[in-house]
Amino acid sequence: MSTNLLSTSGVIGFGGVVQEYLWNFENQQLRVVYETLGKGSPLLLLPSFSSVSTRLEVGELAKLLAPNFQVVAVDWPGFGESSRPSLNYRPEIYQHFLEDFVKAVFNTPITVVAAGHAASYVLQLALKQAAFSKIVLLGPTWRGPLPTMGASQQIAGFVRELVRSPILGQALYKLNTTPSFLSFMYRRHVFTDAAKITPSFIEKKWQTTQQPGARFASAAFVTGNLDAVREQSDFLELVQSLTVPLMVVIGESSPPKSREEMNALVALPGVRSVVIPGSLGLHEEYPAVVLEAVQDFLFSSEN
């Protein structure tokens, strides 16, 4: 496993040093792209899982954090500019990846700021080893869209295999990643200010979804195959077992079911929390508000 500098030509970043981490999993090498910006104590910034997942969604937040931290933002395997092979994407892949990446890139416990579905993976690693000194979860979720809508594991599995199939799968995926559908989803539960969902914004998101192999990890997320825990009680147990300081940021307009889950999380003893404008995409829509909400926690020397 190694890390290499990437040429900036053809690479879409947010102004940092772009590198690739060559990661081996089950005898297959995956190219994982990450970007580093700023100087100071290290901070890992993890985007949420989604069909449009990319480190660029945390790019503005990274720039705001960079004056005080050395920020590392990563494209998850199967998403963004990282390799997108037709793997059976499942929690084991991301659990191993996060552990190996943190070990390869950092040599001391770090602050981690994780959005959406990255929450469970961060919490699991925190319990396994002393990887993190502080944890901030932004709009944390643990259950994928289809299971949240009530789909059984059997139905979700059928949909996943359908999308993975060569011809019909590609057609279904394209239907569910058209610019109009992406715009609809952003308006429904990702952003709260419709004025920010411009044609150029959606065009960039659409481009992300059209990369070769993009449908495989996306289908796994949507159908719940990237859910690192299966029950709310398991998710809450991760937090209850935590010995690292934790802060949770909630978007006041989060979808009802997701908001219920977040409320249950922040009701636990020792969890600091704040509610700010936004929904599931609060880290991208309101990065300055996010920073203002968490900066006291980040700069505090208390454990």
Concise account of the structure shown:
The protein is an alpha/beta fold and 303 residues long. The protein has 13 helices and 9 strands.
Attribute tags:
single chain; 303 residues; alpha/beta; nine-stranded mixed sheet; 9 strands; 42% helix; globular
Write the layout of secondary structure elements.
Layout: E1 2-5, E2 17-25, E3 28-37, E4 41-46, H1 59-65, E5 69-74, H2 91-105, E6 110-115, H3 118-128, E7 132-138, H4 145-148, H5 153-164, H6 167-175, H7 179-190, H8 199-209, H9 214-222, H10 232-240, E8 246-251, H11 256-266, E9 272-276, H12 282-285, H13 287-299
Parallel strand pairs: 4-5, 4-6, 6-7, 7-8, 8-9
Antiparallel strand pairs: 1-2, 2-3, 3-5
Give an overview of the whole structure.
The chain has helices spanning 59-65, 91-105, 118-128, 145-148, 153-164, 167-175, 179-190, 199-209, 214-222, 232-240, 256-266, 282-285, 287-299; strands spanning 2-5, 17-25, 28-37, 41-46, 69-74, 110-115, 132-138, 246-251, 272-276. The chain is built from 13 helices and nine strands. The chain is an alpha/beta fold and 303 residues long. Helix 1 crosses helix 13 (287-299), helix 2 (91-105) crosses helix 3 and helix 7 crosses helix 8 (199-209). The chain has a nine-stranded mixed sheet with strand order 1-2-3-5-4-6-7-8-9, sandwiched between helices.
